Amino acid sequence: MIPKEAKVNKKSGSEYKMKSDSNLKIGLIGCGSLGLQHAKNIEQMKTAELVSVSSHRLSSAESLSREISSAPKAYDDHRKMMANNELDAVLVVTPNHTHSEIVNDAAEVGIHIFCEKPMALTLEDCDAMIKATDKAGVYLMIGYLRRFENKYRAMKQWVDEGKIGDVLMGHISLLYSRPQGNPNSWVNARDLYGGLYSFYSHELDQLTSMAGDIGAVQCMMKYGDLQSNEVEESISMNFEFKSGAIGSLNCCRVYPGGSSELGISGTKGTIKISDGILSYTPIDGEQQVLKHEYNNAYLAELEYFFDCIRHSTPPVPNGIDGRRTIAIAMAAHESARTGSKIKIYY
Questions:
Q1: Comparing 7-11, 119-123, 203-207, 243-247, which segment has the lowest mean pLDDT?
Q2: How far apart are CA 228 and CA 60, in angstroms?
Q3: Coil, helix or strand for 303?
Q4: Where are the beta strands (DSSP E) in the chain?
Q5: CB 75 within 8 Å of CB 52
Q6: Which domain-ending residue is among 128, 145, 162?
Q7: For the segment 8-58, what is each residue's pLDDT rounded down to a tens digit?
Q8: Domain check: are 263 and 230 in the same one?
Q9: b or e along 69-105 (b: 16 or more beta carbons within 10 Å of the residue's beta carbon)?
Q10: Same domain for 228 and 120?
Q11: Which H/E stretch holds residue 57?
Q12: Structural domain containing residue 37
């Protein structure tokens, strides 16, 4: 629970519009490498200021603060940080299993929230987060970074505008080799990290944002190829989309010399990103490489989120989008455990 002396900071949309020339005050919760990257991006903005940072290790918060020109105040508890600062928004960049508690605490004092993916590791936690933010009237955005990369934006625009026709199939392949790393790290613990819930939640979000909701899944998983690891290293999954389209996801973390591809096939042709190259192949023509400019998607997603706050526009992806990927991941695990096709109920 938040301390009783915490400053409740609920602002109406009109109040934000009246402050359109003022900087938003931002707090950062989580001071690892990704937290630092977000902090550096905020430092580039003219409309937001990082005023406080929090980590369960005060030394980590102090170290990050020293690297930022605004010298945000460092805390060892996010509750203390939110109680002592009148914040407009917080970024939650902490281990996956901590997201729900922190988001609920921020909602309780009326602060808008950007939460890194995955939203949580259970549907119960997702539902609690959605309920808390809805009740408080604050925004919850989930950090599905790839929605803000120009090549994915271009691909989705083609799909949304019907240039590939009706979607028939969507597929993702992500094959790579991951270093063993620290065997005691939380990313190797199923209850703390989640495996499919986190590693491939970007991929699940991409498929559903372009091809629609998945209605059923059948999945196989493989464990034990990396030492001291409790999460799945290899996944092969088949989908039935509610639209009638079908799809697949094949991912492996022990695949030296691997590759990556996201493709959506329709009645008029196929658009895909293969090893970073965006292309379109019409059903009766040759492949066309589609050019796009590289952009800093981490910066783009935060600029978008802050703009939503300032203009009282609900952000996307939101809690419903975050919950969707968890529902799919849970169904995939159930399918792998039972060997059955599992229907997904949102």
A1: 7-11
A2: 26
A3: helix
A4: 24-29, 48-54, 73-75, 89-92, 112-116, 140-143, 167-175, 214-222, 234-241, 246-252, 260-266, 269-274, 277-282, 288-289, 342-343
A5: yes
A6: 145
A7: 455 544 344 435 568 999 999 999 999 999 999 999 999 999 999 999 999
A8: yes
A9: eeebbbbeebbebbbbbebbbbbbbbbbbbbbbbbbb
A10: no
A11: none
A12: 24-145
Q: Which CA distances in Å does 116 have to 33, 34, 234, 263, 319?
A: 13, 10, 23, 25, 11
**Within a domain: 321:** yes
The pair of structure tokens assigned to 220 is: 């196989």
DSSP 124-142: HHHHHHHHHHHHHT--EEE
The domain boundary, picked from 145, 177, 201, lies at 145
In the numeric block, which tokens belong to residue 267?
């009645």
pLDDT digit string (tens) for 233-281? 889 999 999 999 999 999 988 889 999 999 999 999 999 999 999 999 9
272 contacts 279 by C-beta, under 8 angstroms:
yes
* Of 144 and 180, more confident: 144
136 and 170 fall within a common domain = no
Same domain, 52 and 151: no
Residue 231 belongs to some domain of the structure = yes
Q: What is the CATH number of the domain that holds 108?
A: 3.40.50.720
Asked whether residue 200 falls in the same domain as residue 324, the answer is yes
Question: Does 46 share its domain with 122?
Answer: yes
